[in-house]
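Quick one: structure tokens for this chain, please?
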Amino acid sequence: MNNGGWKETKQVNPSKITEALLKERDKQAKWNGIPLLLQKLYEHSHPNSDFSQCQSILKEISPLLSMEAMAFVTEDRKAAQESTFPNTYTFDLFGGVDLLVEILMRPTLITQKKKQKISDDLIKDCLSVLYNTCICTEGVTRRLAERNDFVLFLFTLMTNKKTFLQTATLIEDILGVKKEMIQLDDIPNLASLVSSFDQQQLATFCRILAVTISEVDLGSDDKHTLLAKNAQQKKNLGPSRAEINQATLLNIPGFIERLCKLATRKVSETTGTSSFLQELEEWYTWLDNALVLDALMRVANEEAEQSSTESSDESGLANTSTRTQLPQSMKIMHEIMYKLEVLYVLCVLLMGRQRNQVHKMIAEFKLIPGLNNLFDKLIWRKHSASALVLHGHNQNCDCSPDITLKIQFLRLLQSFSDHHENKYLLLNSQELNELSAISHKANIPEVDAVVNTDRSLVCDGKRGLLTRLLQVMKKEPAESSFRFWQARAVESFLRGTTSYADQMFLLKRGLLEHILYCIVDSECKSRDVLQSYFDLLGELMKFNIDAFKRFNKYINTDEKFQVFLNQINSSLVDSNMLVRCITLSLDRFENQSDAKVAEVLSECRLLSYMSQMSMRMSFLFRLINIIHVQTLTQENVSCLNTSLVILMLARRKEKLPFYLRTLQQMEYTEKYPGFILNNFHSLLRFWQQHYLNKDKDSTCLENSSCISFTYWKETVSILLSPDRTSPCAIVSYIDEAYMDIDRDFSEE
């Protein structure tokens, strides 16, 4: 939560100041009687009191603070930051925050036989005032976050349905600023707490869990340098708190099953109108959700007006008055807000250390077929003209719940498919049969994972989830922000060991032509979208002669081919995976004695272009030149691996010395001897440090290139040989005057 303009100040205890002095100063300081009210609250909340008067005092304080909190939330952000909130500041200055914490925790701290009982209404009022103070006064949320006993105590209040929503919202705010991640194991009776939640509460609880299972973001993952990450990993030898918390959740009986049910339930299965309205009413009293409710009410009114002018509507309420029914959009919106939180938690767990365990569970609980059944009606439903968005945002804003749900859904598909045999659950039975038929026709063995897929767990209906995704992908407007996520989700289905049947399944559905249309005909400008399309195109075409034939049929003029090359050359960081795919494919095709392959080799513009030594050398030179050890990230390290692929294929043909000599000549042409080869030497030393400790990375390199990791390691060792007489060692091609290879790596 973004805190307001007042700075944190040392608290004053009003019980130590005389009433007369407080009254005298009150008008002058414009305290609005808050210190006097707090003085009364001190008097009526002593250890032996029954708290009977506390609530009426809080009822007087509360409106003064909620008014400021509402102003903070609804004001323009810039204006809000410049504003001041004197009431909440005064409340905190005179010890109001600490007093309310003490009142809330009193029953747990007193050791007497007869425990004090605080009414639910008093608890709600205390939480409400604390939350409003957190919104407006800088430092309060952080102070509360430092009190671990209070944070853990708040979780115990979640067992009470009446105070659940207020407690959850305050916890979420506190955990958002807490420096040290909370350990879920420390929460008293966590498993029984979770089992006591109904489905709505569980979805809300997922918002809190999101903070506890996500790794602390030190900036964008792709932008963070690998040097820094490697240094951090050396410091953190054991599992992180987030990983421990993920394991804790997976050990809660029935937790994943309930999440899958929540994620896949239909709108018609949600709570009845009366309890739903009651919950919305609770939301309305709770500030954080007031804006969501405002948006819901606007749509409700519009739908009511719309139904009076139309004979029927899609929600099946044609013969009844919409004004007496709960509008369908409100139900849908409610469900979207819940599903967002649940899908996020499932997505994080799918990417964690217990990935295989999570995969097994969500397959068993039929998450994928369930999402497939929701695809048209909820996840990718058609927007009405008044598609619901939050106040102050537009329909295409990333804050729109509709849009966030779609992105979260695509991220889940990406995590689910990536290098895992369960990816075939995204298909239905007929589509799985089609994969088998493709393999039989091509006279190649079926993929084991296809044969072993449990048909009772796959998608049902006319189309599987992957096919549905392809359909919406083709209809997506050129400027849509979804294109990136859609391409990533489909690409993850193809990742890993290349499968001809998987590629042909997608090629038959026109995916290659769609990608080429976006890259060439619409001349896509977004770097992120272009990168995702190049990566997808690489996976789709790799080693597949039919794909290259289709490519040549679509890119059928020199003009089109030049536009395609311009897109590739505009940013090699974005297109290098495609360059790698073309290089690997060309090498394989050249070693085959098939008439069809020979025909495509002679006709395909792309293969002819890459077969020219000067083009391969140009790519190699630029790939090495755009990266340096200090600037390597998860995003651009692929350039290093692509340059290595080019050189490994050269080594196979015993042309490695020729390539190194050509690089040396290119350096001299640029009038800067040594600058490429010194840099490459450093990059390869880093490569050894980085990859020789990591299982996953090595198998990824092996699977994607069909070159054994042993051959990768040997090639790097040969290139890094210190023997200046070796024709395959980099040092043999750097004049001693320009040698600069002994620097140590350090994070700068």
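The two ends are 32 Å apart (CA to CA).
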